[in-house]
Amino acid sequence: MPQVALVTGGNRGIGLGITHALLDEGYAVAILATRPEPEELLAELRERGEVLYVQGSVAEPESHERYVNAALERWGRIDLLVNNAGVAPSVRADILEAEPESFDRVLGINLRGPYFLTQRVANAMLAGRDERGQTDGVVGTIINVSSVSATFVSTNRGEYCISKAGVGMATQLFAARLAPEGIVVYEVRPGVIATDMTAGVKEKYDAQFADGLAPMPRWGTPPDVAGAVVQLSAGKMPYSTGEIINVDGGMHIPRL
Ligand SMILES: NC(=O)c1ccc[n+]([C@@H]2O[C@H](COP(=O)([O-])OP(=O)(O)OC[C@H]3O[C@@H](n4cnc5c(N)ncnc54)[C@H](OP(=O)(O)O)[C@@H]3O)[C@@H](O)[C@H]2O)c1
Domain holding 227: CATH number? Predict the structure, then answer.
């Protein structure tokens, strides 16, 4: 029986990098995403391991129920949740002009959704623990993909920054609540990563990297982020929880 990982947004970008890496580690992976089943991609992924695809939105509790139940029905357990799915504002607008609708959309997908999905998955992990009669070791791992925007200010996408700062607090909250239960919770903070999300601002960041945006003068990649997720999920740090791992080429280091 493989270990089972839930990767939201595991069909594209950073999430797809995480799916690939976890399949290579022997995990079975359940993906939640809004697009219809990507048949070609799924065929390719299934050559590497077991994959389940649930079409739904992380913003909707009804999707959480279908997603978690589908994984439990298929494999009977959940070992790892990676809260990766996320969106940028559809329009970058100055915080003096931004619309409440964009705030609600971004917060709903990036913060409220993962918060309640985490609640549901943690409860499923605990029920599994009790069923197995497990009394020691790591029962489950939860990894939240936040962003440098949890602390870096961008005044033209305030709702995104607030959502990611909130993910940081959600990480601390669930880490504290779940520590006595044997579930560890971590936050992975990517810097600027080459995906669809950043494709529209490529020239801007090319120039900024050339100008020293990060000590490592290059864009990050989905495998860079996936590498951190694999390390954290390996269960080799059972006495650490609530940790933040920056995957940003050193961008978070204050420099003069
Ligand atoms: N790229 C960066 O520079 C960067 C930096 C820091 C942090 N991050 C964070 O990393 C995560 C992944 O970003 P990315 O760059 O890989 O973005 P991306 O290429 O735009 O991919 C976003 C992923 O989230 C899924 N998704 C979007 N809305 C969803 C919803 N309502 N329900 C379920 N799934 C949904 C998408 O699948 P569907 O389209 O099928 O729904 C897709 O798989 C996000 O949380 C993002 O904030 C990215």
Answer: 3.40.50.720
